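Pasting as-is:
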Amino acid sequence: MNIMLFHSTYGLRPAVRAAADRLREAGHEVWTPDLFEGRTFETVEEAREYREEIGKDELLKRAVLAAAPYSERGLVYAGFSLGAAVAQTLALGDDKARGLLLLHGTSDLAPNASADDLQVQLHVAEPDPFEPDDWLSAWYLQMRRAGAEVEVHRYTGAGHLYTDPGLPDYDEEAAEATWRVALGFLESL
């Protein structure tokens, strides 16, 4: 599978590279575009400030430019938190998308969004302050209405970015469970 893996608001941290390596070891080809041009952050506040400085349109432009050379291959879009939101936006706009793997995040859907038969898997903490239950319920219904096949996996007690060993939210048990399920999902596409 060809996978475009987008980083979180913290930037292209070692955990994203390690995730890409794990996917490569499972036989996938993986690209990890750096939407922040080499910048990484230690706090969510610093990261948000930089993200706001770049702006949503520029961020999406960078993501589209990174994915465009490979989209003809039929990409699986994947991402962590902010990167998941970016991946979702790109997957819904790419009729050749093979799948969507969301780790720790989702995004708004346009009212006319279409995702006919797109296979989607979401992994998220429970509770997650950035992905509250009401939001996730509405998101799920919108994705289904758009035509996507959606699986949601919740991890009780895990922090928001629980797959990143370099962050306080890290939860080894939840992270390993996520990767087992996600690798099975990718194999099924």
